[in-house]
Amino acid sequence: MEMTWTGNAIVKSEGLLVQPVRRRVLEILKERGGASVTELAEELGMAPVSVRHHLDILQGQGLVVVSRVRRRRTVGRPQQIYTLTEAAIDYFPNNLRELTSEILEEMKEVATPEQVKELLRRIAQRTAEEAPPPEEGQTFEERLIQVVEFLGRKGYLPRWEKDGEGRYLLHIINCPYAGVSEEHPELCQMDELLAHILLGAAPRRLSRMAAGDLRCTYLIEVPSSPHDGGSTERSDDQA
Question: Measured over all CA atoms, what is the biggest interatomic distance in the chain, rounded to whole angstroms?
Answer without folding.
Answer: 76
